[in-house]
Amino acid sequence: MKKKPFITLEKAKEIAEQYPTPYYVYDEAGIRRNAENVYKAFAWNKGFREYFAVKATPNPFILQILSEYGCGCDCSSMAELMLSDACGIKGHKIMFSSNDTPVEEYRYADQLGAIINLDDLSDVKILKATLGHVPETICCRYNPGGVFKMSNGIMDNPGDAKYGMSEEQMTEAFRELKAGGAKHFGIHAFLASNTVTNDYYPQLAEELFSLAVRLKKKLDIDIRFINLSGGVGVAYKPDQTPNDIFKIGEGVHQVYDRIFKPEGMDDIAIYTEMGRFMLGPYGALVTRAVHEKKTYKDYIGCDACASNLMRPMMYGAYHHITVLGKEDLPDDHVYDVTGALCENSDKFAIDRKLPKIDLGDYLYIHDTGAHGHSMGYQYNGRLRSAEILLHEDGTFSMIRRAETTNDYFATLDFCDVGKKLLRK
């Protein structure tokens, strides 16, 4: 089975006439359709909100599209808070979840009125000392320990993860926060990444809803929301079945009714923080074949590299590749598809069966809409590419320009060498 690109070879070339490869392109129609479906799937819960994980695709044009559907922002740094604020997303539409948090970020999150999600019991005292008060609405992150085998190995072992608190620590944190003036509480957890199953959220919900009942009875607190966080993944491989958000929503609904209704707690809001599911399939990295090498293997070198898409090098992650214009040709050649970094791991594919690739061919790397451009870096002086938004009517516009050498040398502008390098 082959994955289908959302642009044609003709459209890829049309974009490249204005914005040379490599470039990221995002499918606005797909993003909008998916956001609408997420809200339909959880419409049974009156307080539902998706807090888009800004880290996945930190672009204001994307955030503003999602905000039209009611999405807030899941932020984990000062820069992400600043971006959300600049987009007009403020107050409780921001969930601030971080770890090893600088105190100035707590202050800024509080100034914006964000919901602060504490990662560790010690953060309670730090927050009180930093702000001089405890916010009325507060959240804590739970880690049940053990192993949660539902992901592709990116993070599926809570007991070995640096995030969250044990139930004993959660209990003490909520007790201290209540004594400090907190009135409304939330519970958050992230136990596995990139799950390609409709069972992850319902299974996580079972764990968190049961915890909420225990904490409410023990502490007599007002639990306002359960944040299921992210973890709903993308079918990166063509033989995988994509998640069905409607089945996921209904699965959570069934657990909600079974656990919360008998306890009179069926007014609790459900929050999610999906980045990968919201954007992953609706972005692609488009690159051209610029070099062919034959030694012990056949290599195709691209004008993109791990600076543009780090996931294959970092995780060994699979991203499907389509040679645009050759979709109907047989995959009768085997290539390593590489970039130009001085690292042997700079490969988008290893021993991948593809049609014969000629120099100048356009390669469409699928499912890069989340944790793609955002994880880019500047090693070897290879610079990050432009981001393009393909609009619903087929037109397109640049939503982030490509980096230049001026950007690369900008932090040296204080010295003579740096000034020589900067082009006017």
Structural class determined from secondary elements? alpha/beta
Report the principal-axis shape.
Answer: globular
Major sheet summary line: 9 strands, mixed
- Examine the coordinates and then state which fold CATH places here, giving the name of the CATH topology of the largest domain: TIM Barrel
The number of domains is 2
- Say how many strands there are: 17
Detail the poorly predicted runs.
none
Q: What distance lies between the first and last C-alpha atoms, to the nearest angstrom?
A: 50 Å
CATH superfamily of the largest domain: Alanine racemase
- How many whole angstroms does the radius of gyration measure? 23 Å
CATH architecture of the largest domain: Alpha-Beta Barrel
Element order: H for helix, E for strand: HEHEHEHEHEHEHEHEHEHEEHEEEEEEHH
Number of helices: 13
Helix content: 25-40%
What's this entry about, in short?
The chain is of the alpha/beta class and 424 residues long.
Would you spell out the secondary-structure blueprint of this structure?
Layout: H1 9-18, E1 23-27, H2 28-41, E2 49-53, H3 60-67, E3 72-75, H4 78-86, E4 94-97, H5 103-112, E5 115-118, H6 122-131, E6 137-141, H7 167-179, E7 184-188, H8 200-219, E8 222-227, H9 245-259, E9 269-272, H10 276-279, E10 283-294, E11 298-302, H11 311-315, E12 321-323, E13 333-338, E14 347-354, E15 362-365, E16 386-390, E17 396-400, H12 405-409, H13 416-421
Helix pairs in contact: 2-9, 5-6, 7-8, 8-9
Describe this structure in words.
With 424 residues, the protein is of the alpha/beta class. It has two domains: 28-280, Alanine racemase (TIM Barrel); 281-412, Lyase, Ornithine Decarboxylase, Chain A, domain 1, CATH 2.40.37. It is built from 13 helices and 17 strands. The chain has helices at residues 9-18, 28-41, 60-67, 78-86, 103-112, 122-131, 167-179, 200-219, 245-259, 276-279, 311-315, 405-409, 416-421; strands spanning 23-27, 49-53, 72-75, 94-97, 115-118, 137-141, 184-188, 222-227, 269-272, 283-294, 298-302, 321-323, 333-338, 347-354, 362-365, 386-390, 396-400. The strands form two sheets. Strands 1, 10, 11, 12, 13, 14, 15, 16 and 17 form a nine-stranded mixed beta sheet that branches. An eight-stranded parallel barrel has the order 2-3-4-5-6-7-8-9, surrounded by five helices. α7 packs across α8. It is globular and about 70 Å long.
